[in-house]
Design goal:
The chain has 183 residues and is mainly beta. It is built from 2 helices and 10 strands, in the order βαβββαββββββ. The protein has helices at residues 33-36, 90-96; strands spanning 15-20, 41-42, 46-61, 71-85, 101-104, 109-112, 122-127, 133-142, 159-165, 174-178. The strands form 2 sheets. Strands 1, 2, 3, 4, 7, 8, 9 and 10 form an 8-stranded antiparallel sheet that branches. It starts with 14 loop residues before the first strand and ends in a 5-residue tail after the last strand.
Length: 183
């Protein structure tokens, strides 16, 4: 007797993508992201992959006549996607700081962050290495502390990011597309 479904195991860090709000979303597992829309840009290497977090807060509804709660009321929900970008580029700084200005000069590129209140929300996408899973996060804002450590030896600098999801107008916060083996 089988104890589980090996086809439902999910392995590997996958690939991350970023796009402007309102970019067309993938509807299947086979159409390349850049074919869905040229606005989907690969984010490149990460330090240790990515982590999707989903948490809810709740409160018990209690009455004097019962020891156990008679209901549980959900009071808030928080969704986020965290990762550390391993490619130190002006484009990744702009993504991690929710906007800003990149200027190309002779042999150099400069970056200046956005002013407070000028942050830009974005869409994020993720695809598994075996192409059996895709996630679309529809409205995201990077809210984590951006850190870049510099150390000796093989320790590489990274740009840490934590994007929180907001509810987009007329849609759910995210969509997951999975192969039937994961149904």
């Amino acid at each position: 007797m089988a104890r589980g479904n090996p086809g439902a195991l999910a392995l590997g860090p996958g690939s991350l993508y970023i796009a402007v709000l309102g970019t067309p979303e993938p509807t299947d597992l086979t159409t390349p992201w850049e074919t869905v829309s040229a606005s989907w840009i690969p984010l490149g290497y990460t330090d240790e992959g990515s982590t999707f977090n989903y948490s809810v807060d709740s409160e018990n509804v209690e009455v004097a006549e019962e020891l156990d709660p008679v209901a549980v009321a959900l009071t808030s929900r928080e969704l986020s996607l965290a990762f550390a970008l391993a490619e130190i580029t002006a484009a990744n700084l702009k993504r991690a700081l929710n906007g800003g200005t990149i200027t190309a000069g002779t042999g150099i590129v400069t970056f200046e962050p956005p002013d407070l209140g000028e942050e830009v929300r974005t869409m994020l996408g993720w695809e598994s290495e075996d192409h059996t899973e895709r996630w679309v996060y529809r409205k995201c804002l990077q809210v984590g502390n951006m850190e870049m450590s510099r150390a000796k030896g093989a320790a590489k600098a990274t740009i840490s990011c934590e994007f929180k999801l907001e509810r987009p107008s007329g849609a759910k916060s995210f969509k997951a597309i999975m192969a039937m083996a994961r149904a």
